[in-house]
Fold this protein.
Amino acid sequence: MTAHYLALSGGVGGAKLALGLSKICSQGTLSIVTNTCDDFTHLGLYIAPDLDTVMYTLADVVNTKTGWGRADESWNLMNVLKTIGGESWFLLGDKDMAVHIERTNRLNKGESLSAVTQALTQALNIEHAIVPMTDDRVQTMVTTELGEMAFQHYFVREGCQPKISSIRFDDIENARPSPAFTAAIADPELAGVILCPSNPFVSIDPILHIPGVRDMLNKLKVPIVAISPIVKGLAIKGPAAKMLQELGKEASVYSIARHYKGLINGLIIDTEDAPHGPTIEAMGIRVKVTNTIMKNLDDRKNLAATTLQFIQDIQHDKL
Amino acid sequence: MTAHYLALSGGVGGAKLALGLSKICSQGTLSIVTNTCDDFTHLGLYIAPDLDTVMYTLADVVNTKTGWGRADESWNLMNVLKTIGGESWFLLGDKDMAVHIERTNRLNKGESLSAVTQALTQALNIEHAIVPMTDDRVQTMVTTELGEMAFQHYFVREGCQPKISSIRFDDIENARPSPAFTAAIADPELAGVILCPSNPFVSIDPILHIPGVRDMLNKLKVPIVAISPIVKGLAIKGPAAKMLQELGKEASVYSIARHYKGLINGLIIDTEDAPHGPTIEAMGIRVKVTNTIMKNLDDRKNLAATTLQFIQDIQHDKL
């Protein structure tokens, strides 16, 4: 029996670990379920930032400097769009735009986001399954001091500057997990679930808030482990630390542990956060201390290998 | 009282004369009504080839080698689209695509094609009015030996190769002329109407087939003149000559005269076709013989000036 793994991921941080996992898992043994609550319709196009980041990362066409968008990108469309009065706060490169156009066109013709994603990942020669968390439309809304706004407006247009007070996932109560997501959880060969080092509030929480998902995960007999996206009180990337503070929580791995308590069996924290280990273990969560900062491909593969080993260790101790 | 002119135009050939007219008419005195029956929805985007050709030509951003599309264009979007399975038979450059995206987005939000065109032409600093013939959706369908197909499929995908037997304008019976088109015909300062050297069957006929348009034109007391797109039995560009033959007509200026008989007061033919002059005049159509092949900007301006002078001559003789 081959060990299968299910990774839940947001964008840049999650995609780094997903890439590491993809390099050490054999074809067909890894499913990467990706947040779609950040998706939005912009310029009439359906844009799925987290799906694309994971897809471009695994296809080795990602812009490695930014972590999102494509390498060797050009911006001719965007530059003309500015001159004719189009919205230009969300940067869309010429190559990237091909994906948005093709995806939108297929969705409008009635294909599911899952089917479109499968076609795109196949075309990009990606060996592992990248799966949208749902085929239903959901949308992260952030209540800020400037009022409520859709996530990308907060994240990109406003540059995460406005102070936030709450987050909600619009229409999540009507969303169903995508067929491949449900199948991955029910897979008899599933050996473990990995919560990638993505923002817990806006990347992983939407996945967990799809009705039925948390229940299905809780019933699993295999380990569920998370990798902390917070190191020494700071987010590696993005607004996770700022969000923790604004939501009245301590920006630390301890808050990550509390957030996932009751779901995860293990938490991987950075060596810099080793002193927090005992406190988290006292909460009934196994802790693995390692380097979690992924600067290069070796870091990604090492963290992926450590994660799979951690899952095996937890499973072994359970038996 | 300033003389105002109304030009009816298709794509490349019409745009050349429209550019000449735009250079000799003062701002606000020229309306260029453009065929929209070639427009189609492709990749989920509303694409208006003739409007864009006229717009890019007057904005001086057109690809002067092809006559359509933009100068200094890049094809990164298209190249990626091919690799992900998107339809790629209709070439869309990166800069060009910005216009399709912005137009489609505005149309989907409820703006009329007229309003969008006005916004785009203003953004491109075009001094004259480029007006879609209608804001309603119509579509040229060509019956060919391979079956009926939409015009761009015949024209671009099939490269005009299949033999045609008939042409129809889908939904034209429900179309209304755009407000600015109606206003241009009713303009008390209108001094003449110009049928640009565009394909009579697929560029000018759709405009004339909008219910009410031909009646309004026939009631005008000002000259209506056409410039033959056929020179020495050949079309300067495009399938007009081939269409004439396949529709059982002689490919000559004589057929153009017959086609427009009852509508036009004058026809401008090329010096190469001077021998046909008397036959056409015998049909009750005034003929002006001049160079109609527009190789450079001076040719465009000269033909435009000759056209306006011809209109004045006809008007003068009427009085």
Summary: The radius of gyration of chain B is 19 Å. Chain B touches chain A through 30 residues (CB under 8 Å).
